[in-house]
């Protein structure tokens, strides 16, 4: 039984074959194209369940493909996992801010890529808790209505900015968020937050959360994510 359809977009035939071989073994229906123009035609005519998108493509590059897909209502909900070369952190940040769901750097392990794909598809099926839902994650409880946080039933005093950052990340465990995305959700706070000061707020937040501080993971060169405790 098929687990879903995946489109692989990469100009290197060896990589397309390697990824395709492993995904077919894992019961996915696989299609491949070698450039951005073909990718856009494919997603419009045969929308896949997920796109694996190399950023370094001839002609229309991967970032432009991502931008066009996310701007089109008929393709905006298709999840995208980016393939990037090491050292392309700026492109990773740009892709995530355009709406990509995750990324993996070359060279990569096919098993790691498969795990990322499963995680992205799983998250897409899950409903994100609303702003009002109380979150219980491990020893951590976040109550948006009263804006209170407890760790192992002990209250934790957070600033307004720290609470917003924690709640934003915790509602979407496993999702990677850039510093600029985190800045956006803190807009309106009395103390202005910049991309550089996000690290300071996260450092303080981890310290205050004590035993739960490691729930917030650093994604080097990109930003942060909340640990997905349910699917480790």
Account of the protein in words:
With about 230 residues, the protein is an alpha/beta fold. It folds into two domains: about 5-125, Rossmann fold (3-Layer(aba) Sandwich); about 135-230, Arc Repressor Mutant, subunit A (Orthogonal Bundle), CATH 1.10.10. It has helices spanning about 15-25, 35-45, 60-70, 90-100, 110-125, 160-170, 180-185, 195-210; strands at about 5-10, 30-35, 50-55, 80-85, 100-105, 135, 140-145, 150, 155, 175-180, 215-220, 225. The chain has a five-stranded parallel sheet, with helices on both faces. Strands 6-7-8-9 form a four-stranded antiparallel sheet, covered by helices on one side. A three-stranded antiparallel sheet has the order 10-12-11. Strand 1, helix 1 (about 15-25) and strand 2 (about 30-35) form a beta-alpha-beta unit. The two termini are about 25 Å apart.
């Amino acid at each position: 039984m098929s687990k879903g359809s995946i489109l692989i977009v990469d100009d290197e035939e060896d990589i397309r074959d390697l990824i395709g071989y492993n995904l077919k073994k894992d019961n996915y229906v696989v299609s491949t194209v070698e450039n951005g123009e073909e990718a856009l035609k494919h997603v419009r005519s045969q929308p896949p369940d997920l796109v694996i998108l190399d950023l370094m493509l001839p002609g229309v590059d991967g970032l432009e493909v991502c931008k066009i897909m996310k701007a089109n209502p008929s393709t905006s909900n298709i999840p995208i996992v980016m393939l990037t070369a090491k050292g392309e952190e700026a492109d990773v940040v740009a892709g995530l801010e355009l709406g990509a769901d995750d990324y993996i750097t070359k060279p990569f392990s096919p098993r790691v890529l498969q795990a990322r794909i499963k995680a992205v598809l799983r998250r897409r099926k899950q409903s994100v808790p609303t702003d009002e839902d109380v979150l219980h994650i491990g020893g951590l409880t976040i109550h948006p209505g009263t804006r209170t946080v407890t760790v192992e039933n002990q209250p934790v005093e957070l600033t307004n900015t720290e609470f917003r950052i924690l709640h934003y990340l915790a509602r979407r465990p496993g999702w990677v968020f850039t510093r600029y995305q985190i800045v956006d959700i803190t807009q309106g706070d009395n103390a202005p937050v910049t991309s550089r000061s996000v690290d300071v707020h996260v450092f303080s937040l981890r310290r205050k959360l004590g035993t739960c501080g490691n729930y917030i993971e650093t994604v080097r060169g990109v930003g942060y994510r909340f640990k997905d405790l349910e699917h480790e």
